[in-house]
Amino acid sequence: MRFTRVLVTGGQGYLGSVVVDLLSRSGFEVVSLDSGYVTDTRAALPHVTYVQGDVLDPASWQTALADVEAVVHLAAIVGDPACGVDEDLAMRTNYLGTIRVVEACRKFGVGRIVFASTCSNYGSTEGEQVDVWSPLNPQSVYAQTKVLAEHYLLSPHGGGPEPCILRFATLHGLSPRMRFDLAVNIMTASALAQGRIVVQGGSQWRPFIHVRDAASAILKCLRRRPGSQAVVYNCGSNEENYLIKDLAELIRHEVPGSVTDILGDVQDLRNYRVDFSLIRQTLSFTNSFRVVDGVREIRDAMMNGAYDDYLSPRYSNHLRALDVSHQGAL
Ligand SMILES: NC(=O)c1ccc[n+]([C@@H]2O[C@H](COP(=O)([O-])OP(=O)(O)OC[C@H]3O[C@@H](n4cnc5c(N)ncnc54)[C@H](O)[C@@H]3O)[C@@H](O)[C@H]2O)c1
């Protein structure tokens, strides 16, 4: 039964392509909106409507919001290195783009917006566990754009969509639009292809979540009762907080013959251990996968010959952003 029409911005991205698939299989009528900023292939799932458009230019796509009941807003320039290539573009896309999407939602009477934020908003917490009420301490332009967008979503602007904000842990695992610029994915790929896992420092904490679990959390947000009290959730699970050196050890164990190379103790500005109790208690969200599952599926896909070119710019938001910026400069 198709009961709700949902628009997913960034629907062709790493997370978006998994979300679009899950929502479509769960009975939603799905519209994907993506500018093609990082994706050059046109995904084509049956039953999904694909619209090419820039979130900054709603006039060109907002009619796609007709009869839409909820928006899942994922479109962004994603990651510290990619945002560093053109900080102004990152700020406009991630912050102003969110404002534009909310304004369009208001115009078309969209009732709900699920927003993809990030646990990197917490910055460096010296290993202290942080929860949704802890102060934010963004250490990069990327995190700053997300903090500002959250702030806007949480400000009252009469008649706008009800926000549900998910501060995701770092994603991992296979997606139709693969990324090899994420810690678990790149460390697994390099263990397999180079026999070596390079770790900078290693004593920093980082939480992880499988991309399919992240998509399931979004589904939970779409299904939660209107007017539910909590609007900001850390999205992940408590047992998936890892020290990076332990993550490397786990991967080394799963890729026989690989070695770990720890390069001194660099100061990583992102060091956070996150409490995910609220999403478990309020939305009954639990993860179905652990980091080891993401490692194994990537390892097996690579052993079957997929991703021989895992260092290609198409798998890296940073290299892709450099390409786009270079083309713009020509
Ligand atoms: N991947 C992670 O570890 C992670 C962690 C926390 C939060 N998030 C958030 O989840 C969301 C999805 O991340 P992802 O990993 O899928 O990244 P991604 O780069 O694969 O996906 C982002 C998508 O947005 C599109 N896009 C960029 N600019 C656009 C614009 N102006 N208009 C329309 N579309 C545009 C891109 O083409 C891409 O398909 C992002 O908002 C990100 O900040 C991701």
UniProtKB/TrEMBL annotation:
Top-rank taxon: Bacteria
Coiled-coil residues: none
CDD domains assigned to the protein according to its UniProt record, in alphabetical order: SDR_e
A Pfam family: Epimerase
Location of the Rhodanese domain: 4-49
Gene3D superfamilies per the UniProt record, alphabetical: NAD(P)-binding Rossmann-like Domain (3.40.50.720)
PROSITE patterns reported in the protein's UniProt record: RHODANESE_3
InterPro entries: Epimerase_deHydtase (IPR001509), Lipid_A_modif_metabolic_enz (IPR050177), NAD(P)-bd_dom_sf (IPR036291), Rhodanese-like_dom (IPR001763)
The protein's name in its UniProt record: NAD(P)-dependent oxidoreductase
Organism: Streptomyces plumbiresistens
